[in-house]
Design goal:
This protein is an alpha+beta fold. The protein is built from two helices and two strands; from the N terminus they run H-E-E-H. It has one domain. The radius of gyration is 14 Å and the shape is flat.
Length: 67
C-alpha cells in the first residue's frame, strides 16, 4: 500500500495542499496526471492555477481509448 502512495506521502507529511489534473496519455493509452503542489494555506491559488489549466486544455474531457 505504501508504494502506491509514494508520490503523495511527502506532500501530506509536509501539510501542503496538492491536487492532480489529467494532462495526457502515454504511448499505451494510459492516463497521465499532473500533480500541482501549493504553499501552506495556498489552496485558493492552487485551485486558480488548476482552473486556468483546465480552461486552456481539453485533457479533462478526453477519455482513454477502449482496449
Amino acid at each position: 500500500m505504501y508504494l502506491l502512495d509514494l508520490m503523495t506521502i511527502p506532500v501530506n507529511l509536509a501539510g501542503l495542499p496538492a491536487l492532480s489534473l489529467p494532462c495526457g496519455f502515454d504511448s499505451q493509452g494510459l492516463p497521465i496526471g499532473l500533480q500541482l503542489i501549493g504553499k501552506v494555506l495556498g489552496e485558493a491559488s492552487l485551485l486558480q492555477v488548476a482552473y486556468g489549466y483546465e480552461q486552456s486544455t481539453e485533457w479533462h474531457q478526453r477519455r482513454p481509448p477502449l482496449a
